[in-house]
Design a protein that fits this description.
- This is Calponin-1.
- InterPro entries: Calponin-like (IPR050606), Calponin/LIMCH1 (IPR001997), CH_dom (IPR001715), CH_dom_sf (IPR036872), SM22_calponin (IPR003096).
- The protein is mainly alpha-helical.
- It has 8 helices and 2 strands.
- A hairpin with a 6-residue loop joins strand 1 and strand 2.
- Helix 4 packs parallel to helix 5.
- The longest helix is centred in the middle third of the chain and has 18 residues.
- The radius of gyration is 20 Å and the shape is elongated.
């Protein structure tokens, strides 16, 4: 892996993007993914995920039936379809759209940082749903607040600091 990642939009290398890719996080992700799926990724983390098979198996372990059909990676379109199925499944699982990589980020090896960020977001979502995940953060649950109508009316009498 080169120390400079190209920016897909303009093709200009951006060293700051490469610096955000964290080899320690990659090791943690590898341990989690291999432990969850029971499959070995291989020497190159991104190349091991590139066909989408392990990714589909990962989301199917977290939420059974998420990806109905995992293609044998015979041709490129099979690989891209697996990656696309994985991305749709993790969206349904709760990973936010702004946290998700584009299929070509992985398939064409253009943005490893975004792929890593997506997998960390997936780990965080899995942790939030009660899975035993040591990586990522547990998202806070929504706290719904209910105020009595009289309290809301009292608030109208308070002069705001903006005045």
């Amino acid at each position: 892996m080169s120390s400079v990642s190209p920016c897909p939009a303009d093709g200009v290398p951006h060293p700051q993007l490469a610096q955000k890719y964290d080899p320690q996080r990659e090791r943690e992700l590898r341990t989690w993914i291999e432990g969850t799926t029971g499959r070995r990724i291989g020497d190159s983390f991104m190349d091991g995920l590139k066909d989408g098979v392990i990714l589909c198996e990962l989301i199917n372990k977290l939420q059974p039936g998420s990806v109905q059909k995992v293609n044998e990676p015979i041709q490129n379109w099979h690989k891209l379809e697996n990656i696309g199925n994985f991305l749709r499944a993790i969206t349904r699982y709760g990973v936010k759209p702004h946290d998700i990589f584009e299929a070509n980020d992985l398939f064409e090896n253009t943005n490893h940082t975004q792929v890593q960020s997506t997998l960390i977001a997936l780990a965080s979502q899995a942790k939030t749903k009660g899975n035993n995940v040591t990586l990522g953060v547990k998202y806070a649950e929504k706290q719904q607040r209910r105020f009595q109508p009289e309290k809301l009316r009292e608030g109208r009498n308070i002069i705001g600091l903006q005045v």
